Amino acid sequence: DMRFLGMITDETQNILWACGNMTKNGKNYSSVIKFNLTSGKLLKSYSHIDSVANTYNDLVADDSGNIYFTNSKRQNISKIDKQSDSVSVFFEGPEIAHPNGITISPDNKYLYIASTDKGIRVLDIAGRKIIGESVSSINSEGIDGLKYYKNSLIGIQNAVEKEDQIKICRYFLDESGTNIIGMKIIDQNNPFFDIPTTFVIVNDNL
Questions:
Q1: CA 116 to chain centroid
Q2: In 14, 80, 107, 163, which residue has its Cα 20 to 30 A from 25's Cα atom?
Q3: pTM of the complete model
Q4: Longest Cα pair distance anywhere in the chain, in angstroms?
């Protein structure tokens, strides 16, 4: 009965990570689940059971194998620590209200978090603080899937007022990688779109 949202693969460890949620017998179950990528065998489930709804939505791994994931019903992201194999809230605050997509810089310094309400925000991992400004002139609210690509961020903007506003956007970063300085629409109102959510980039193809 689990409904899955964000997924990533760790091919070096042969692991598929996925976020899943379900309601059963009046209780809400939210989990990050670890599968063997080849066999599909369940390796471990990091679960939270609550009387109120949570939505574990999307996740990203750093180079050390730590996993960061969003809870779209809240204003926090959590971390599965590779060394201790434990889960804890990594950052919480109104700056990332209703976080959805999440991605990481190649140097593992910054997490980029798509807040449905506040737009794309940059989290300094070492300092556990939001840096850079939320740019009101560039609309990055309502983004679902988010990926880092060549000093930019690509996002699918689907939480919009009208269906013809659904689009895939590229947000260009400054040299520091901490501020959005421009935006380009890659595709909008494509007749093949239903409600696109997330994506992967392979060999410069999206």
A1: 11
A2: 80
A3: 0.95
A4: 51
